[in-house]
Amino acid sequence: MGRKILLEHINVPGINSYDVYRSKGGYASVEKAIKTMKPEDITEEVKKSGLRGRGGAGFPTGMKWSFLAKPEGKPRYLVCNADESEPGTFKDRYLMEHIPHILIEGMITSSYALGVNTAYIYIRGEYFYLVRILEKAIAEAYANGWLGKNILGSDFNLDLYVHPGAGAYICGEETALLESLEGKRGNPRIKPPFPAVAGLYGCPTVVNNVETIATVGPIVNMGGDEYAKIGVGRSTGTKLISASGHIKKPGVYEIEMGVTVEDFIYSDEYCGGILNDKKLKAVVAGGSSVPILPAHLILNTANGEKRLMTYESLSDGGFATGTMLGSGGFIVMDESTNIVKNLFTFTRFYRHESCGQCSPCREGTAWMEKILAKILGGKGEEKDVDLLWDVQRRIEGNTICPLGDAAAWPVASAIRHFRNEFEDFVRNPANQQDIKYYFHCNNIDSAAAYSSI
Amino acid sequence: MSEIKFSTEAESLIQNILKRYPNDRKKSVLIPALHIAQAEFDGWLSVPVMDKVAEMLELKPIEVYEVASFYTMFNLNPVGKCVIEVCRTSSCWLRGANDIVAYIEKKLNIKNGETTKDGKFTLRTVECLGSCGTAPMLQIGEKFHENLTFEKVDEILNTHQNLEKHCTYLDATTFRKN
Fold it and tell me: Which chain A residues are Cβ-neighbours of B84 within 8 angstroms?
């Protein structure tokens, strides 16, 4: 069994309540931090731990914290990014539902480290039932003196609030999230300035993912060096993986970084193998944005080494033969999966979620969706596959925020590794057997889909 | 003058949440306020309702419209008492979301995106709701219905058959009192 840091007590009955969480050593990091550590000591421990942002980008958390500007007379903010919306990712939801206090503890310890007196948890609106859970946990934390004025008799004050979104993937991008928290459309801002300098209400702000913040408590408790011993190389610690698709045991698993992909898919400790014992066809390893890989490349690198669940190993080979750990949204597809149909669900998703600010993304995602509908509908020509490639290439790198890249990569990788499936749709009418049904269920008016191409 | 009137309960909810933001940043309460307004007025945001929200928060109406129209969860047209939102993105599709959509369409005799004539149900498909490990799934109000089968769908449709009020994402007990 791998070591558990975040989910150590997941099976303890009542761990979602304050009393049980506290009896299992909960809020110890707040006591340790406020009573024995200076704020900058905590940032130092987080740096030593090697913790990297768990939302998807993998940026070193300690470094992000150290960029926070500290001008006199301006408040600083900590905002937790609980806008979990990357298709295939549901780990933050799991953590907040089952152990809400671990996030609240992390928010308090992190706020102390950053000199923050007001902090927000921005949560996607679809998770309203979690707002209820978090609000209850926050009320318990206030009632027990962990939030409010003069926490533990110190001069540290903290107010913590939950703020719901209203259905917009783009608000997971940190500057769009801040716009949304200010009561505006979720249009990402041009950077610089980065939020560390001008974030919420123009004040210095740190935005961190739920899992990242939840990990700060354990790091303070065990010490950064100790945390860094877990894992492999620069992929330190544990990671929550959301496993879904054609596997026997979908769910959230905490892995020690460095487990092999093969073990993760096939061992009973994790996914338990492919549903109905079919063959593995492909995996999207880190949420919908990361490149899809065929079975042979996800299990082993192009050099024939076993692929590991780490930032470095998953990206070994670059985009030619590798992918990314991303948010840890691990979607498994068996041999029966049609890659083009799956890709369509991703591309439609990005078209729907594009904020519309940048032309390459706004127009490009819509074009890709239309071209895919045309190909799926049997009206495609071989040049359409090249056109699709061309459109995605013109989105990547040409937008304010990474949504454009996120829309381009799944298309590029599906063509790179499964070009034959696109061509099959173009050449072989047999593939269109159930396409009417597919189109109907997906609300696609096929005539409209082709008319503008 | 707008004739729209919020209940005192809803108004005090908004006032309560308003305290969470700096005094000169009232606009931050806009999205929570629109959620409360939608729950208050039959599950959708009419122009008069949005105008009333603007008046309450001292915003220009356009500031409210542009936000309401940006976010998927805000309905700008009337909806059924029970809005069924079926997730259709990758993981749900892999585990049979299309069959669930088709089944509900047949049972309710409406197409995806439509409302039943009696105004009881609206069916629509939505993008990933973060329930990939328990796919296929649908959301009604704040509740997630997961690991769906046709039998489960039957049960869900039955229990939502004769609702008095619209299903909502939140109610007066969702937020704690500050």
Answer: none
pLDDT at A1 over 90: no
Residue A378 vs residue B75, higher pLDDT: B75
- CATH number for the domain spanning B67: value is 1.10.10.1590
Is B145 among the domain residues? yes
Q: Given CB atoms, is A276 within the 8 Å cutoff of chain B?
A: no
| Rounded alpha-carbon distances, angstroms, from residue A452 to A367, A369, A432 | 9, 12, 21
pLDDT per position as a tens digit, B117-172: 999 999 999 999 999 999 999 999 999 999 999 999 999 999 999 999 999 999 99
- Contacts with A355 from chain B: Cβ below 8 Å: 70
Are B135 and B97 spatial neighbours (Cβ–Cβ below 8 Å)?
yes
Give the pLDDT of residue A2. Answer: 84
Across the range A439-451, mean pLDDT stands at 71
Whole-Å CA distances, B120 to B81, B107, B123, B141, B158 = 5, 13, 10, 14, 11
CATH of the domain at B101: 3.40.30.10
Contact B176 A136 (CB under 8 A): yes
As for the ipTM of the complex, it is: 0.97
Question: Residue B72: its chain A contacts at CB < 8 A?
Answer: 166-168, 352
Yes or no: say if B17 and B29 are a contact pair by the CB < 8 Å rule. yes
**pTM tops 0.95:** yes
Nearest CB partner across the interface for B88, out of A182, A284, A442: A442
**Overall number of domains in chain B:** 2
